[in-house]
């Protein structure tokens, strides 16, 4: 029995050709262009102002939570927990 037309070698050759073509294009370039981000001075000032107040507020909130947990006065709202868990439980 003789099997013709499988042409498997041709598919591999096409893959090699595309790799070689890509390699030739890469050789022509001296280096890859890298993305750059520049932040304006106004944006930097806003970030600094926001960071100082935001950090202090987070620190105060964290300290108040720590105190309430240590005192035993921290209460968890079961309804909020159930609302957050419900979408994960109803994955049918």
From TrEMBL:
Pfam families named in the record: FlgM
Keyword Transcription belongs to the record: yes
Domain (Anti-sigma-28 factor FlgM C-terminal) ranges: 35-86
Protein name: Negative regulator of flagellin synthesis
Keywords per UniProt: Bacterial flagellum biogenesis, Cell projection, Cilium, Flagellum, Repressor, Transcription, Transcription regulation
Record family assignment: Belongs to the FlgM family.
One biological process term in Gene Ontology: bacterial-type flagellum organization
